[in-house]
């Protein structure tokens, strides 16, 4: 007969192996490209922003790559991504070929996130303006201000207070994002700061600060309806270290990834999760890969292979049961 000590040790070993095997199973991970090229003013918070998003990647089941190389657009390598994040861009960051590739990516179902001065790039592109929602006009000096949260039902607003105190630039826009179908979720309370600028009031009311589009410019252009999210906040390094702000940004990214228009969820999609060229030699720094947060349903992904660890789990459970039975003898 086996000794009680041996049976107890064996039981503990088997239980540990099952836990390790389960944790090693393949979980679908979405791929997101952060594009931070600038041609005019450059925010010194860009490296901090990239680092912050990558650090959160594992919590949200996102693999982030980042680049400032616009040739990734023209040679089709963006097709492997489930979403593009335009981060604090300024000026004409894409040439004609790059803009055409961006438009094709969006038309094929790609998702888009714009952050802060992403609204101040590609100013002559009507398609980009529709995908974004509105182009930047001007802002007063950076200031303490209050932002009203108009809808708490989305992952990009669910963790925000009703009245959010921020220290940031209060952007004004050349048009009303609601005119292209965007839904405004954050609004600047203009009574909480001073704006001496040439107000044209073309952006509508209440003052838009962040918004989303269930269907971006792709569907307006006769393509597939990927999602779009934009927030004008994100100027300082300190902002990118704030957990509340990061929940806002990461909530926006995770929301667009649920569009059902990329291969992360839809196996017949034209773009996303490795459907394009997989070369990332020009991306820097290296990608961060993670798993989904606890309690979050992860969509099935036909590109993911089953882990051998899961195959062995039933056998291990049976062995554990037998050992427990022996312990009871």
From TrEMBL:
<feature type="domain" description="ThuA-like">
    <location>
        <begin position="31"/>
        <end position="256"/>
    </location>
</feature>
<keyword id="KW-0732">Signal</keyword>
<feature type="compositionally biased region" description="Low complexity">
    <location>
        <begin position="276"/>
        <end position="300"/>
    </location>
</feature>
<dbReference type="InterPro" id="IPR029062">
    <property type="entry name" value="Class_I_gatase-like"/>
</dbReference>
<protein>
    <recommendedName>
        <fullName>ThuA-like domain-containing protein</fullName>
    </recommendedName>
</protein>
<dbReference type="Pfam" id="PF06283">
    <property type="entry name" value="ThuA"/>
</dbReference>
<feature type="region of interest" description="Disordered">
    <location>
        <begin position="275"/>
        <end position="301"/>
    </location>
</feature>
<dbReference type="InterPro" id="IPR029010">
    <property type="entry name" value="ThuA-like"/>
</dbReference>
<feature type="signal peptide">
    <location>
        <begin position="1"/>
        <end position="15"/>
    </location>
</feature>
């Amino acid at each position: 007969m086996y000794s009680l000590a041996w049976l107890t040790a064996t039981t503990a070993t088997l239980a540990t192996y099952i836990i390790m095997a389960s944790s090693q199973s393949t979980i679908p991970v979405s791929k997101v490209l952060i594009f931070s090229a600038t041609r005019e003013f450059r925010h010194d918070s860009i490296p901090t922003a990239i680092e912050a998003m990558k650090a959160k990647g594992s919590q949200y089941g996102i693999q982030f790559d980042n680049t400032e190389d616009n040739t990734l657009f023209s040679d089709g390598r963006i097709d492997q991504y489930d979403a593009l994040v335009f981060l604090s861009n300024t000026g004409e960051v894409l040439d004609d070929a790059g803009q055409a590739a961006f438009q094709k990516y969006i038309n094929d179902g790609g998702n888009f996130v714009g952050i802060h001065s992403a609204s101040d790039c590609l100013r002559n592109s009507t398609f980009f303006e529709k995908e974004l929602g509105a182009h930047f006009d001007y802002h007063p000096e950076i200031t303490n201000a209050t932002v009203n949260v108009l809808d708490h039902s989305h992952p990009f607003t669910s963790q925000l207070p009703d009245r959010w105190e921020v220290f940031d630039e209060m952007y004004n826009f050349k048009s009303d994002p609601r005119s292209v179908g965007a839904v405004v979720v954050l609004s600047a309370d203009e009574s909480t700061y001073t704006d001496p600028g040439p107000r044209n009031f073309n952006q509508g009311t209440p003052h838009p600060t962040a918004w989303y589009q269930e269907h971006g410019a792709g569907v307006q252009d006769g393509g597939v309806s990927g999602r779009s999210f934009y927030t004008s906040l994100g100027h300082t390094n300190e902002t990118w270290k704030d957990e509340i702000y990061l929940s806002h940004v990461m909530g926006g990214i995770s929301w667009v990834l649920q569009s059902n228009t990329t291969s992360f969820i839809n196996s017949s999609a034209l773009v996303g999760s490795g459907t394009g060229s997989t070369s990332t030699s020009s991306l820097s720094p290296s990608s961060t890969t993670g798993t989904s947060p606890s309690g979050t349903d992860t969509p099935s992904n036909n590109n993911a292979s089953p882990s051998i660890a899961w195959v062995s789990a039933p056998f291990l459970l049976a062995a554990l049961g037998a050992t427990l039975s022996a312990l009871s003898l």
